[in-house]
Design goal:
The chain has 104 residues and is of the alpha+beta class. The protein is 56% helix and 13% strand. Helix 1 packs antiparallel against helix 4, helix 2 packs across helix 4 and helix 3 packs across helix 4. The protein has five helices and three strands.
């Protein structure tokens, strides 16, 4: 994963409300912006702002139908982020022999 996308995903997931919106989208096959707005005590414009951040991070895709947008999670992106995070936080450690040298 490129540095730019890694940072976008991290920033997108750092906002608690945006994270919950992403979880909602992930739990649905497809969901509209209006349906998301009904689930949260925020204005639809705020939901749209959060959705834009999720789209910029490639965490969700949108299917347009007229003026309506229907959102789907992209699990492969979050999986790639998790792998990259593990790589950055817990890099491979050199394998040490567990054998002891006797007599020294």
């Amino acid at each position: 994963m490129e540095e730019k996308q890694f940072t976008r995903v991290a920033k997108a997931m750092a906002d608690p409300q945006r994270f919950e919106i992403f979880r909602t989208i992930s739990g649905s096959k497809e969901i509209s912006c209006g349906a998301i707005a009904e689930l949260f005590p925020i204005q639809q414009s705020t939901v749209s702002h959060h959705l834009k951040a999720l789209m910029d991070a490639d965490l969700v895709s949108v299917r347009r139908e007229g003026q309506h947008g229907y959102f789907t999670a992209r699990p492969e992106v979050i999986e790639g982020y998790v792998k990259e995070l593990q790589h950055r936080v817990m890099p491979s450690r050199p394998k040490h022999s567990t054998r002891r040298v006797l007599g020294k």
